[in-house]
Amino acid sequence: xxxxxxxxxxxxxxxxxxxxPLQSLPSYTARSSRVCDSxxxxxxxxxxxxxxxxxxxxKRKCTLSCQVCHINPGGGGLRTPAxxxxxxxxxxxxxxxxxxxxxxxxxxxxIFHKKSxxxxxxxxxxxxxxxxxxxxxxELHKLKFFYSGDFLAFGYPFNATTKDSQSSYAFESGRYxxxxxxxxxxxxxxxxxGFVRINNKSSFVFxxxxxxxxxxxxxxxxxxxxxGFPIRELNTGKKIHFNLQNASLLIHELPMMMTIxxxxxxxSFGIRHEDHTAPSRYLLDMDFSRAKNIVLGTEISIAPxxxxxxxxxxxxxxxxxxxxxxxxxxxxxxxxxxxxxxAGVSFIYKDRPxxxxxxxxxxxxxAYFSFWKWKLPIIILLEGNLGKNPKSFSDFKTxxxxxxxxxxxxxxxxxLQINHHYLLNDxxxxxxxxxxxxxxxxxxxxxxxxxxxxxxxTLTNTRNTSTDLILLFHGxx
Length: 477
Hints:
This protein is mainly β. The protein contains six helices and 17 strands. A hairpin with an 8-residue loop joins β14 and β15. The longest helix is centred in the first third of the chain and has 16 residues. The chain starts with a helix and ends with a strand. About 9% of the residues have low confidence.
């Protein structure tokens, strides 16, 4: 009762005070790193299974990069079986039937439920599937067309009808409970309606409605596409328009989690925010809701365990002519994402006509720190970018953006956060400087349902201030 009372008061308080347009940051991977069965069922031997055999290092899926949870190696959108397992069992407050071991250690929830969770690796409290070393291979190793927990991911590749005929680099059948590890077809939907109050004006917004599909006819080959309807304010009468966010051929299931993506995509740079208003997104052409940011080219990514490297080469979409491209560009992202810390660097270069946005050159650094080692459910995220883009037809300006965020996982499903954005749009003109402080929360209620909120205070160099409030609902399948 104490827990429920405290939680209710906290939610009411935050609903009054907060807003956050959902940020898909490395905090998810940082939180999952504390225990293996965040991404798949426990690897340890217990009464219901034998110990999972650990594959050789170049075949492992143990990585903290975006592509372990998302089909698109750059992150966001359709989820892999590991991503669907994580979203089903780790993120929500309610409805998780296989909460990972030690998931609640150090959180507020654990204080009241210490006796409810196993403290050793050999416990089988939350395990209820068969041994992966069973002798009945004809039945156990045959892949199913439908899985009870994966009604939008079904079938299997035409050349992989059994677990033994799967690629040894694919997500292994059986490790993800009732999830389809190697589906023929995956469909996903993300929607984000919400309430916004900005400059004393209130409105209902529809931040996003995305539909994604992945077709995996044979091992090592998939076709993926995502169509978005990024309308903003429904009460203004603005027409709904769609945006093809990606349409790519994926060559994947390669050694060391290597993936080659060819087609239309948003290149990787820094950390991926889903907040379209973040300076480190729109100034660096990383806002996926804007069609002009989607490029045509090839991206190669590799993520064996902790190191990662992504290289992209592309041509840029023209601003005013649909399905037309001009100029060229490239990105490089590299770094190390470890269990309790991570750091990376990114570079982007775009050469294009001034009418299409002009040349862009930028570099950035990012890092995260997790304190779960000391049983503190706290994560710190940091990012900084320095770049140059057109100021006019004949002049360029240098801009600086920074981002910092502190998260506290109060209890599984409820994550509190404080963040700060800084922007200096032109280093030679201080009047274009502003700071934005946000206080908010992410409340994963059940699988597929999330409530996000944040209260923002923005201070410009002219001493103008604004207080904004956004409450967003996120529904996903």
